[in-house]
Automatic annotation (TrEMBL):
Keyword annotations: Cytoplasm, Lipid A biosynthesis, Lipid biosynthesis, Lipid metabolism, Lyase
Family to which the UniProt record says this protein belongs: Belongs to the thioester dehydratase family. FabZ subfamily.
Biological-process GO terms, alphabetical: fatty acid biosynthetic process; lipid A biosynthetic process
Enzyme Commission number(s) from the entry: 4.2.1.59
Compartments reported by the entry: Cytoplasm
Active site per database record: 48
Source organism of the structure: Acetivibrio mesophilus
Known function: Involved in unsaturated fatty acids biosynthesis. Catalyzes the dehydration of short chain beta-hydroxyacyl-ACPs and long chain saturated and unsaturated beta-hydroxyacyl-ACPs.
EC main group: lyase
Database matches in Pfam families: FabA
Record-level Gene Ontology MF annotations: (3R)-hydroxyacyl-[acyl-carrier-protein] dehydratase activity
Gene expressing this chain: fabZ
Name the UniProt record assigns to this protein: 3-hydroxyacyl-[acyl-carrier-protein] dehydratase FabZ
Alphabetical list of PANTHER family matching this protein: 3-HYDROXYACYL-[ACYL-CARRIER-PROTEIN] DEHYDRATASE (PTHR30272)
Amino acid sequence: MLTNAEIQNIIPHRYPFLLIDKVIEVEPGKKAVAIKNVTINEPFFQGHFPGNPIMPGVLIVEALAQTACVAGLMLEENKGKLGVFTGIESMKFRKQVVPGDTLKLEAEFLMFKMGMGKVKVLATVDEQVAAEGQIKFAMIDPNK
């Protein structure tokens, strides 16, 4: 298990864009499972939507990507790199995520070589699928 402070030692994201609170399972370069506690205090709820707060789907995808990023950046050859999107495939949104929900985020690597990867992702709330699909990414050197 990784705490929020330990996550910040691995990935560069910070408030308000750090979207995972803890990692409950991780196998570097293979898979990760994280938790996001969704609260009404999230800045995006001010405008999405007043009177009917729903977590934007794009931020659920970002939280899933950050979960995958933890597992990818834990590998020695990726330390100091950035994980960036190269594609999103077959993403489906099945349940609205609202304040009070605990979002379980799962990322399983399908392929990862030469700095390129593809992960299967799943976001659930109370064991109900909120979002699922695949994310493609590249590990880049931020200094180049």
